[in-house]
Amino acid sequence: MNSILIISGVVTIAILVIMLAYILIKGVPVMNLEFIFGQVENQGRSGGILPMIISSLYVTLISILIATPLGVGAAIYVVEYANNKRLVNVIRFGAEILASIPSIVFGLFGFAFFVMFLKLGWSVFSASLVLAIMAIPTIFQVSEVSLSSVPSIYKEGSYGLGATKWQTIYNVILPAALPGIVTGVILAMTRAISEAAAVMYTVGSSIAIPISMFDPGRPLPLHLYVLATEGISLPNEFGTASVLVIIVLAITFLTNYFTDRYQNKMMGK
């Protein structure tokens, strides 16, 4: 059984390495300053992808700013305040359902509700709202586990010093659970920045740099989808994929690094 588990781990890592190596080997030669900081030319056959990078970061940042307070707030309520088990079960069930809905369904909902009904139009903001809805279940579920894992002695010590419930949550429980909460935010962020189907019907697919959040845009995954489906430029496809992979890896490594530093500081190391 030990050998089977080791093989499973090795195979998992091997699949990841093969995928990343194939994409980066094909895409890194295409990446240069002109490609990264240039404007789109000839519908993506040449030029750069700067508008797509800005659109991706714009959409992801807004969606996480919306989803994080909602997801963490819901987790705090379930763990610290909720006394009605039926309500808690309903909240958890709703989060599980949201997490299991295909991303294309979110995209169609966003088009019908945000773009058409609320008249927000094809814009970065409409796409961000869709991605925020998709990110909330991940942030909520991971945050709930992290908050529940905080030792009860922390709360007892805080109450013993005369702190109120909210002071205990804000100054003791949240800092102790922060590394786990950040992990949930990272998972939600990497999913948001990698989504194409969810933003296809809401962001507008404009190749111009979005200035306002009410302007249309074209995030990197959607640009990659357009290049691949229309067979526009194979080198640019791999270059775009490589940039997207590098951004996701950078976000993951940087947040993990600062989270580890924070955790070591909390532990006095």
What does this structure look like?
This protein has 269 residues and is mostly helical. Helices cover 76% and strands 1% of the residues. It has eleven helices and two strands, in the order ααββααααααααα. Strands 1-2 form a two-stranded antiparallel ribbon. β1 (40-41) and β2 form a beta hairpin. α6 (124-148) packs across α8 and α10 runs antiparallel to α11 (234-266). The longest helix is centred in the C-terminal third of the chain and has 33 residues, at 234-266. The chain is globular, with a radius of gyration of 21 Å. 36% of the residues are buried. The mean pLDDT is 87.
Structure described in brief:
The chain has helices at 2-27, 33-37, 50-81, 85-100, 103-117, 124-148, 152-160, 165-193, 197-200, 220-230, 234-266, and strands spanning 40-41, 46-47. The chain has 269 residues and is mostly helical. Helix 3 runs parallel beside helix 6 (124-148), helix 4 packs across helix 6 and helix 10 packs antiparallel against helix 11.
